[in-house]
Hints:
The complex is a heterodimer.
Chain A: H1 17-56, H2 62-67, H3 69-75, H4 88-103, H5 107-115, H6 121-131, H7 138-147, H8 154-161, H9 170-186, H10 197-208, H11 218-226, H12 235-242, H13 249-257, H14 265-270, E1 273-276, E2 279-282, H15 290-321, H16 324-335, H17 342-353, H18 358-366, H19 381-405, H20 410-417, H21 422-450, H22 454-459, H23 467-476, H24 481-505
Antiparallel strand pairs in A: 1-2
Chain B: E1 9-18, E2 27-35, E3 39-43, H1 50-58, E4 65-70, E5 73-74, E6 85-88, H2 100-109, H3 115-128, H4 144-156, E7 162-166, H5 174-191, E8 194-199, H6 202-208, E9 211-216, E10 219-224, H7 226-231, H8 236-241, E11 246-256, E12 259-264, E13 269-274, E14 283-288, E15 307-316, E16 320-327, E17 330-338, E18 351-354, E19 361-365
Amino acid sequence: MAETNAGPMLxxxxxxxxxxxxxxxxxxxxRALMLIAPLLIFVLVTFVIPIGxxxxxSVKNDIVADTLPATVEVLGDWDxxxxxxxxxxxxxxxxxxxxFAAERKEHTRLGTRLxxxxxxxxxxxxxxxxxxxxxxxxxxxxxxxxxxxxxxxxQTFAAMLDGPAADELPLTADAWARWKEFNxxxxxxxxxxxxxxxxxxxLHYELxxxxxxxxxxxxxxxxAAAVGEFETVSLRDQFAxxxxxxxxxxxxxxxxxxxxxxxxxxxxxxxxMQVTPEGLESRPENQQIYGVLFKxxxxxxxVITGSCILLGYPVAWLLANLPMRVANLLMILVLLPFxxxxxxRTSAWKVMxxxxxxxxxxxxxxxxxxxxxxxxxxxNQFGTIVAMTHILLPFMILxxxxxxxxxxxxxxxxxxxxxxxxWTAFWRVYFPQSVPGIGAxxxxxxxxxxxxxxTPEIVGGNTGTFISNRIAYHISSSLNWGLAAALGTILLxxxxxxxxxYDRIVGIDNVKLG
Amino acid sequence: MADTQSADAFVEFERVQKSxxxxxxxxxxxxxxxxxxxxxxxxxxxxxGKTTCLMMLAGFETATHGEIKLDGRPINNIPPHKRGxxxxxxxxxxxxxxxxxxxxAFPLEVRRMGKSDxxxxxxxxxxxxxxxxxxxxxxxxxxxxxxQRIALARALVFEPELVLMDEPLGALDKQLREHMQFEITRxxxxxxxxxxxxxxxxxxxxxxxDRVAVFNDGxxxxxxxxxxxxxxxxNSFVAQFIGENNTLDGxxxxxxxxxxxxxxxxxxxxxxxxxxxxxxxEKTLVSIRPERVEMNRDRLxxxxxxxxxxxxxxxxxxxxxRTRLRVAGREDFVIKTRNAPDQRRLKPGEQIEIxxxxxxxxxxxx
Lengths: 514, 366
C-alpha cells in the first residue's frame, strides 16, 4: 500500500486495526477459555496446588518454632561451639514450652521430626513429655505463697502480667499469656484454675536474674527482694533425671540448627549431605544412599529406553509398512498389554523369571544351565529392566509408528532408483525421517521410567529399586514427607533439565506424536 | 503401428504378465519395445496397468511371467539400485531432510564419486533445470514447480540412459504443467535419453511423446505416434479415450473396400470407413471427431449421406464454438466449429443437416 508509513493501520471505523482485531478475537478466546475451564480447575485443584504444597514441604520447617517458641528465641544466642550446655534461660524457656507441648501432645511430633536429624531424639521427647508436669518445681509456688498468700490467686498474676510489669518479665508474661490461651482452648476459666508451677518457675527465674521491678507493686518488689533466699531446684537436673541425653550438647545443637522456619536440611539429606553449624557436609560413606539411587534410576531408565528403541523400531516399521489388515492385527497385539493390569503383567514376569520359574526351567531342561546354578533373573536390576521394557514398549512403538506412517514408501524407492542399496536407502533416507518418532518415544518412555514405582517395587529386590520407591517409603512408612518432597523436587528438576537438554540437542519441534 | 520387436530395441517387454493376488492379471501379455532416445508415454485410465509396467521396469515389482530386457540384457533379477534407471516420482520424493544440493549429490555419493566431480555435476544439473541458485534450500522451501525441476535434475544427474516418470506433473497447475511439459521434452531430447512417461492426461501424452502406448485392462490397446492415435484410433476404446469423440451405434450394411455404410438405430444410413468390422450385419460403433463434422452440404461429396439434426445448445468458447445436437435419437452429439468471420452461430431449436467425409468416420468394434 502507498500509505504504509502513515502510522498504524486503521479499521473502517477509525480505530487502530490491531485493537479492532483484538476485540474481535476476545470473544473467541473467552469461549476457548470457558471450554477448558472445567479441566483447568480440576487440574489446579487436584494436581497443581497439592503438588505445589508438597514441594514446599521440602523446605518448610515450622514445627520447631511453633512448638518451642520461647526456647527458639533464647537458644539463638547459645554458642554451640563451646561444647557447653545452654544456660538457665534456655532451660526455663524449654520447661515452659515442653509443658505446653506435652499437654497438647505435640512433643512426639516434634521428636519424630528431629529424629530425622539425630537418632534417639524421638524417645527423648516422648519420655520427657511424660515427666514434665511432675517436675519438682512446686517448691517455687509454696515459697511465693509463703511470702505472701496473694501469690496463690490467679487474679494476682492477671493483674500483674496484664499491666506494665509484663515488659520487665517477658518470659513470665509469655507463659501467662499462653496459659490463658490454653484455658480458652480447654473451655476453662483461667481465673478459676490454680496458677501452674511453670509460671512460678519463670517468675522466680526472671526475678532472680534481677528484673527491673522498682516501679511495680509492693508485692512484687518484696518477692524480688526475697528470691535470693529461695530454695531452688535445677531444671537441668530435672530434665537430666527424665532422660540424661538432655546433657548431650548435640541435642541442643540439633534443636538450634532446625529452629528456622525454612531449612535446607531435607535437600541436604536427599543429596547425601547433612547440615552442620559449619555448613553442608557429606554424610559418611556408609550412609550415602540417595546419590546411588538417583544414578541407578537414571542409568536403568536409559537402559530401558534403549532396549525399547531396539525392540520397538522393527515392530513400528512393520506396522507402518504391512498391508492394513495385517497391520491392524499387529497393532492389537502391541496394544494388548494396555488392556491387562499393570500388576498382573509385573507378577507374570515374577513367575516367568524366578529361580523355579518358566525361563529357568526351560534353560535347565535344555541343559544350558545346571539345576543347582539356576539364574537369578528377578528381584534385581535385570528383572526390573526386563519387566519395565515390556511394560513401556507400547509407549515407544506408538509414536514411532505414527511418524513412520507419514513417511511415504516412495522415498525408499527413490533412494533405490538413485542407486542406493537397501541398507543405504534405509540409513540415509528412511532413518533420519523416523528420528522424530524415536525422539518422542524416548522422551515418553524415559520420563515414565524415571518415575516408575510399582514394577521396581515388585520385581526390583534390593538392587533394582528406583528413587520413586524411596519416595514412596518416606511418604507412607517413615512419614518423613519433607524428605520425600525434597527427593521428588530433585527428580522433577532432573527431568526438566534433561528435557531442556533434549530440546537443545534434538529440538522439541522435532518430536512428533502423530 | 511401429514394430514391437525391433533389433535395436533399448527397452523390451516380452510377453510380460503381472498378478498381485494370483487371481487376476493386472498386466496381460505385454509386448513392447522402444529404441534408444525415444520418448514413450504410457497413457491409460487408472488401474489399466501402466504404473505397474513402469514399476516392473524400475525393479520395484517383479514380473509374474515374461522377460524385461534393458539394452539386450534381461533385468528381471537385477535389484533396482543396480539398474541405473533414473526415476521421477509422482510426489517428487525429494528427501526432506537434505538440501537440494544434497538430494542431487545423493546418487553420486552412493556411486562413490569424488567430491569435486560431484559438485561439478550437481551444479551442471541444477543449471540445466535453471535452479542454480537453490542448491542450499530445503525441498519444503520450494514451490511445486521448483520441486518438480529438482526431481528431474536428480533423476538425470547420474546420467542414466533411461528415465522413468510416473505422472510427474500431476500436482501442478495448468499453466505450470504446460511449461514443464515443454521443459521435460526439451531436456530429454537435448540429452538424447530414452524416456518412459506415465500419465492419464491425454493432452500431455499427445504433446510430449514420440509414441504413445494406450493402456486399458492390462493390455496395450494401441501403440502409435500422437497424430495416428488421434486420427486413426484402432478400436473404440482408443477413439473414446483420446480426445472428444461422437459415437453412434449401428449395424454394418455394406462394405466396399475402405468404404462402408452403416444403418443407425433409427434407420438412417451413414458413410464410414471400416476399421475393425469385416462383414455386413456386424454391430459397430462409429466414431467421428466433433471438428470433422460438416454442416455445409457443398463441401461434401455429392453422393454423401447426411443426417438431420436439431440444435440443443450453443456454447461460445472463444476460439471455437461448441454446439450440442440431437442426432439419430442421441442428445450428446457435439460439433466444434472454428470462430471464423463467416461462421454462423446456431440457435437452439434450429434444424440443420450434417454430414462428413467417409474417411473421418471410423466404424469400430461395438
